[in-house]
């Protein structure tokens, strides 16, 4: 097909494109605003290692840096353990299983620093904030008990999230719009490909390779 024919097909079946695109966008909007329950996220950062003065920091060597990086990785794994989850559940009197609580939590080191960020996601913003703060305290407590040294320093507390982290209605609608547009264009070209009827003089000449001498118009029998 030539480019002109593509535009003709789109122009002829533009209504299908509009209907499919608007339908997918509308479904996405309804799901984002009314069906999917919002999820809130609360973050808290802790520093791993003992607080040092400037002289001690200047004396740090390469081995010390590697040691702290290993400690960050170790404490990142401790966060996701069952014993820490059970301590959080007991401190907040939560009515959930440790596995369910662990599924709500993620932890990530901040680059090459000694900070780790604990992130909690929940349908209740207050619940997300309280669990994040409790997790930091439980990590400090359990870490000191298991390693016989307090290497977790609490810097600040998690704040109450004011807006949901997901879903993102505008982003979902934009994605649905473009997906609907691409699907609808694919549908109209599939319909055109499956349609074997001859629709005009130009198609007859193209199929037969000979010019059309004349044509018989349709006669309206009601006249």
Question: Keywords for this structure?
Answer:
223 residues; alpha+beta; Alpha-Beta Plaits; 2 domains; four-stranded antiparallel β-sheet; LPS_length_determ_N; cell membrane; protein tyrosine kinase activity
Question: Helical segment tally?
Answer: 9
What pattern of helices and strands is seen along the backbone? HHEHHHHEEHEHH
Using the coordinates above, name the CATH class of the largest domain. Alpha Beta
Bulk shape = elongated
- Identify the CATH architecture of the largest domain: 2-Layer Sandwich
Largest sheet: 4 strands, antiparallel
Low-confidence stretches: none
Helix/strand structural class:
alpha+beta
Subcellular location: Cell membrane
Transmembrane segments: 14-36, 170-191
Domain Polysaccharide chain length determinant N-terminal: 2-92
Keywords: Cell membrane, Membrane, Transmembrane, Transmembrane helix
Notes on the structure:
The protein is of the alpha+beta class and 223 residues long. It has 2 domains: 3-34 and 168-208, no CATH class; 37-165, 2-Layer Sandwich (Alpha-Beta Plaits), CATH 3.30.70.1130. 58% of the residues lie in helices and 11% in strands. It contains 9 helices and 4 strands. It is elongated, with a radius of gyration of 32 Å.
Short structural summary:
By secondary structure, this protein is an alpha+beta fold. It has nine helices and four strands, in the order ααβααααββαβαα. Strands 2-3-1-4 form a four-stranded antiparallel β-sheet.
């Amino acid at each position: 097909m030539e480019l002109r024919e593509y535009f003709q097909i789109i122009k002829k079946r533009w209504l299908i494109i509009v209907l499919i695109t608007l339908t997918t966008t509308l479904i996405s909007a309804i799901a984002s605003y009314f069906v999917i329950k919002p999820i809130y996220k609360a973050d808290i950062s802790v520093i791993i290692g003992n607080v040092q003065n400037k002289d001690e920091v200047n004396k740090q060597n390469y081995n010390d840096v590697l040691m702290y990086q290993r400690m960050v990785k170790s404490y990142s794994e401790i966060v996701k353990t069952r014993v820490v989850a059970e301590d959080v559940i007991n401190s907040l009197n939560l009515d959930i299983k440790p596995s369910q609580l662990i599924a709500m939590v993620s932890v990530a080191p901040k680059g090459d620093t000694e900070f780790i960020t604990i992130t909690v996601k929940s349908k209740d913003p207050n619940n997300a904030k309280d669990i994040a703060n409790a997790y930091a305290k439980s990590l400090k407590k359990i870490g000191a008990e298991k390693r016989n040294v307090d290497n977790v320093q609490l810097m600040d507390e998690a704040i109450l999230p004011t807006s949901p982290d997901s879903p993102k209605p505008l982003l979902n609608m934009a994605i649905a719009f473009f997906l609907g547009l691409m699907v609808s264009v694919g549908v109209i070209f599939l319909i055109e490909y499956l349609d074997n009827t001859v629709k005009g003089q130009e198609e007859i000449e193209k199929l037969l390779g000979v010019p059309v001498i004349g044509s018989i118009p349709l006669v309206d029998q009601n006249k």
